[in-house]
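Lab notes, practical 5.
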Amino acid sequence: MVLPTEYDDGGFTGGNMNRPVLKRMNRARRIASARSWLTRYTGKNILRGYSKHFGVDWRCAAAELEMLGVKIDAKYLATREANEAELVRKRKERKREREELERETAQSHPYTDSSSAYLAGDFAALHDLEQRSANTEDVSAERLFQDIPSKKLR
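Output from the prediction step:
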């Protein structure tokens, strides 16, 4: 279907771009705007709706809704806080596990000799194998010299 005239949406594709979340209001302007927003809000979770509409985190939204006289259950806020702490703990645990796995994989490779690493083009593994062999040669040379008795000069 061809439109008879050229269509221009003015750059507002994908929804209304005139939302407060995109304007990043300061607290005073948000509270002033929230007074009218509260009368129009029809969703179930007012805290989530406020957070999404004004682009703030849930703690800021809870504080500002309290300023506006909206009662939020203290148990709900405590549960939300506990869930947030649990998420942070899980993220740190996953990060620690990921870093540990990276350390393990960085130290190991499938090659046992330097020629197979060279043929495969894995120069990091080749370097690692050469460093390991150099370290073992240094250690064996030290052991060799420890076995030779030193002569005392008179």
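Observations recorded by the TA: The chain is about 65% helix and 0% strand. Residues 15 and 135 are 64 Å apart (CA to CA).
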